[in-house]
Write a structure and sequence with these properties.
7-stranded mixed sheet; Beta-Lactamase; alpha/beta; Rossmann fold
Length: 302
């Protein structure tokens, strides 16, 4: 609410407690009504350009220039792991690469939350009966709960509470967009576990190698893989005996096979479990689990 101009903040304040708990995003689109994702309330207030400018001025401390490294990726990250996605006029440099975004037309304020214990949904699928932890990829569409699950997995693995036969692990989080740990000035704002180290704002590939060289992690957790360099780093981590837990946007096994980068990850057999997620009733549920050869796993260890 501190991000919003008063007339729009009042619309959020009007939500009852139950609606507020379900609220996941606040969407501002110029010329259209303020919209909520997660809450069902309808709002008549029409969004204006000055509303978007207000939000981004507050979010960036009145310095859009300082926020350009993030804006060129289409978002601004806030303390606490919250993210503001932006759309508008894209400004390119001479090499046709995105330099920044100007003349904003829409903003999506995504609200990050801790859901303590939610990793229980997948714990039985990513461990063996003897307590062995398996390298795993959480697969699902946007808003299916992947990052929230990664956050709770880090906490439970770092604390040694994932399962009774799974001891605490040294966990390294490579938090490229500051979403998993929600760090502010380098300090995680979410509980990510007693034995967890975080590289905040660090590119995934560089961060994974930094972790391997300097912090001796037993588990590396990162979000949203998708490049050939990501796959090489994951494969190198697997060869070093490190468990990798990450996520990717996809809906089905065929989606993974059709993307050359992910097909190469499958071929490398660096991932032991592919856990597909779906959203139901505001929570992430497991819709399918596959092994390294993409054979369905029908039984989780309880």
């Amino acid at each position: 609410m501190r991000l919003l101009p008063q007339e729009l903040a009042e619309a959020v304040a009007d939500l009852d407690a139950a609606q507020g708990e379900r609220l996941e995003e606040v969407r501002l689109r110029v010329g259209r009504p303020l919209a909520f994702v997660g809450a069902t309330a309808r709002v008549r207030r029409i969004v204006k350009v000055e509303h978007l400018n207000h939000v981004l001025s507050v979010a960036t401390g009145s310095s859009l220039y300082a926020a350009e490294p993030e804006l060129r990726q289409g978002f601004v990250t806030l303390p606490g792991g919250h993210r503001i996605g932006v759309a508008g006029r894209v400004v390119l440099d001479g090499a046709d690469r995105v330099r920044t975004i100007r003349d904003f037309s829409s903003v999506a304020i995504r609200i990050a939350r801790e859901v303590s214990g939610c990793a229980a949904e997948v714990a039985g699928f990513i461990t063996r009966s003897g307590g062995e932890l398996l390298s795993s990829l959480l697969v699902g569409p946007p808003l299916s709960g992947k990052t929230t699950l990664l956050r709770d997995l880090a906490r439970q693995l770092g604390d040694g509470t994932l399962r009774t036969n799974v001891a605490a692990r040294r966990v390294g989080i490579v938090d490229e967009r500051s979403e998993i740990a929600g760090s502010f000035r380098g300090v995680p704002q979410f509980d990510v576990g007693a034995q967890t180290d975080v590289l905040d704002g660090c590119p995934k590939v560089e961060g994974m190698y930094m972790m391997l060289r300097a912090l001796a992690p037993e588990v590396i957790i990162t979000d949203e893989i998708g490049t050939a360099a990501d796959v090489r780093a994951i494969t190198d981590a697997a060869r070093a005996g490190v468990v990798l837990i990450s996520s990717v946007h996809a809906n089905a096994i065929d989606d993974l096979r059709r993307r050359p980068v992910l097909a190469s990850l499958i071929a490398a057999r660096a991932i032991d479990r592919y856990v597909f997620l779906r959203r139901s009733g505001g929570r992430a549920l497991v819709s399918g689990v596959f092994d390294a050869d993409l054979h369905e796993v029908r039984q989780a260890w309880r």
